[in-house]
Amino acid sequence: MNDLGPSAGPCVRNRREVLITKELLGTIVSHYAQNENGRHGIVHWARVLENGRRLCSINGARRQVVELFAVFHDSGRVTEKRDPGHGQRGADFALALRGKAFDLDDEDFKLLYDACVRHTDGETMADLTVQTCWDSDRLDLGRVNITPDPAMLCTEAAKEKSMIEWAEARSRENHVPTLIRDEWGIVIP
Ligand SMILES: [Fe+2]
Question: Residue 154 and residue 10: Cα distance in Å, rounded?
C-alpha cells in the first residue's frame, strides 16, 4: 500500500464514539455484490464484531481496527465460494471510504488494511491487533460446520476452550446479534 488515503489528523475519538455508523454500514451493504443475508453477510459481520469486542476486552487489541475489520473483510467478495482476491478488495474498499465514511489514524489504518489483505491466507503470525481480527473471523467457522481449530487461531484469548465453545455455539445456531438492529438500524428477516 503506497497511499494511506486521507488522514483525519490526530486521533481524538472517544472509545465510546460510534465508529461504524448506519451510513457506513449502508454504504458497505449497497456495495456488497453477494446476498447480504448470505453466509458471508451482515449476520456474520456482526458476530465477528462481537467476537472481536470480546477478544479486545481480554487482550487489549485495538478495538476500532477490529470492529472495522468485521465489516470490511468480506465486503469485496464476488462469490460465496473460494475467492482469494476478496481480502485485497475489502482493504481497497476501506481505503476508498477512509476520510469519507470513517476516520482512522495512519497506524491503525495500516493494521486494518494488512488484516483485510492477509485474512484469506491462513496465517497466524502478525501484530496482535491483526491476529485478533483474524481470530474474530475464524471463531465464526461453525456457521459452515467447522469447529475452530486452536492451531489455526492466533491469540491466547481465542484459543481458550470457553471462547471457542461460546463462539461456535452462536455461529452454529446462526445467532443474530442485537447490535444489527440497535447499532446499525437493520432488521434481519
Ligand atoms: Fe469472514
Answer: 30
**Residue ranges with CB less than 5 Å from ion ligand 1:** 74, 137
Place of cell 476520510: 99
pLDDT of residue 188: 86
**Cα(109)–Cα(104) distance, rounded to whole angstroms?**
6
pLDDT surpasses 60 at 8: no
Rounded to a whole number, what is the distance in angstroms from the first to the last CA of the chain?
Answer: 38
Distance from residue 168's CA to the centre of ligand 1 (Å): 14
The CATH number, out of the four listed (3.30.450.40, 1.10.3210.10, 1.20.1440.230, 1.20.140.10), of the domain defined by the range 22-182: 1.10.3210.10
| Model pLDDT for residues 62-120, shown as the tens digit of each residue | 999 999 999 999 999 999 999 999 999 999 999 999 999 999 999 999 999 999 999 99
